[in-house]
Amino acid sequence: MSAVTGIGRRRREPSLWQQARTQWLNVRVRGIDAGTRVVLNLGYLTVGLYILTWILPTSFLQTLRMSYLGVGALFTLLALARIRQFPAVTFPAFALLVMQTWSIFTQFYALNYLGRGIGFGRAETFLTEALVPYFVAYAMVSLAPESRRVVFRMVLAAFALSCAVGLMQFLRLGPAMSLANLYTYKAIDNWDGTSGIRAVGLTFQPNQLAFQAIVGLAFFVAKTFVGKLSKLDVVAILFFTGGAVSTQARSAYIVLGLLWVVLMVRLWHIDRPLFGRMAMVIALGLMAVVAVGARRFGYLFQSSSVEEDTSFRFRTEFVWSQVDHIYPQLFFTGVGPSNGLMLNTGPEDKWVPMGRILESGYLLMLCMYGIPGLFLYATFLLGSIGSAVRRMTLPTSTPVVRRTLATFAAMIAFMVVNSYTFNTVDGYLIFPCTLLFAGLTVDATRNVKF
Fold it and tell me: What's the whole-number average pLDDT of the chain?
């Protein structure tokens, strides 16, 4: 398409690539002094270290973990010294602080009454560790609210790269298939003995790539709450949808479906022509899935019911049997933090005789923290969604904050569904990334809390 200029010549509209480049570059942070800029750059470095953890092989994990925790703590202290106000503790952060307090109580109870040891490892500190990106993000938007857009682009660029690799793996392109061997622990073309491809992208597990794709998709779907979609937005929605589909992560498909329902409802209200075109895309996509069937989606179609699913039966008959050693005997406190149940480190004692990763976030909370811990975790998840939706409706919420809140709500929704058959909180992607976005939702310029 083209437009007529003032002197009669026609000017071509910018291409999608030019639009993307312009949007990427148009995020300069202005109006801050040199000292604040130095501190802010330290925050970008912290976020960059987190992002590298989310797209590099797990062999780099421990080095990067020590780096982002150290740099993140330093940045937060320097930033808070410049902000000169106590950080806002919003609902997600408050809920995790309460959970961490209960975790400490259960650990000392297990020490004194169950004869279990006490430690200061990943299982004992993962809740506090997840709060680091929250306070980093909060400090960044407090120093310069425009930094929120920069962080968005950093995260989306990394997740888009991972999804691009995942789509190439789904198409069985040689280099991408070889790259999967560096990241994951199973053959992606024979996952759990099934045919088809389960793409992993630049992660160690399909479920992780599904989360990255859902984050990207949610970010662009959320734009419908603040305006119409551009051509570039539509391309991004289709791209991240393809990334999620290529994983065959069935729990993620639930969130994927919900996001598309939200998208279609919003399009019906704001852009009827695009609604019609996207409805055709849905129909064509479903026909394509049926057409390729088991050749590409063998894991998805491996059984006609949950009871016949081999991976689900393995969990119920073998992995989840570990709960019987703990519940209902220790229904109130659980066994306290357990590296065996959370990180697959092996047998610990009579309460954790197997020490295999539990593969259910809800059962993990029940076993480690008892019924109160499970209640607190459910409160964190559902309360975070509720508070995010409430803040989206406030007239004081700016468009960028409203879009951030919608994306954050989708990430929590992913955790709600994913926690049924995955630990969810044990990895270094889903939990910290979600808390990073929770920090970005704080509108420091208006001091609005949720």
Answer: 89
